[in-house]
Write a structure and sequence with these properties.
Strand order of the largest sheet: 1-4-7-10
Strand content: 25-35%
Radius of gyration: 13 Å
Structural class: alpha/beta
Helix content: 10-25%
Mean pLDDT: 86
Order of helices and strands: HEEEEEEEEEEE
Distance between the termini: 35 Å
């Protein structure tokens, strides 16, 4: 029973974080991504985030520029730094930053 309660809390937190995600126009963001601390993540116009991507901005910030494409299984985590992906970039599967 305790494991189920913990799991539901995690799912609820992820759903709420997704609602706080700021993004530009014409973005395609899969529903099958993990977002942690969405208030520190900014996404510009025309960004495509495919399934199984993890974005975690704990004490740092993540910024995705225009026309950026994150392919499946990309992991972007920052604990106190800043990750900025510029315009017109593609991050290929299984890349970890």
């Amino acid at each position: 029973m305790n494991i189920l309660t913990d799991w539901l809390r995690i799912v609820y937190k992820l759903i709420n974080d997704r609602r706080n995600l700021r993004h530009g126009d014409q973005c395609r963001i899969s529903r099958k991504i993990v977002i942690e601390n969405a208030k520190n993540i900014s996404i510009d116009n025309n960004v495509w985030i495919e399934s199984n991507v993890t974005l975690g901005a704990y004490d740092g910030q993540i910024s995705l520029g225009e026309n950026t494409h994150l392919l499946p299984f990309v992991v972007l985590h920052t604990y106190s730094g800043y990750i900025h992906i510029g315009k017109n970039c593609t991050i290929h599967p299984f890349c970890v930053l």
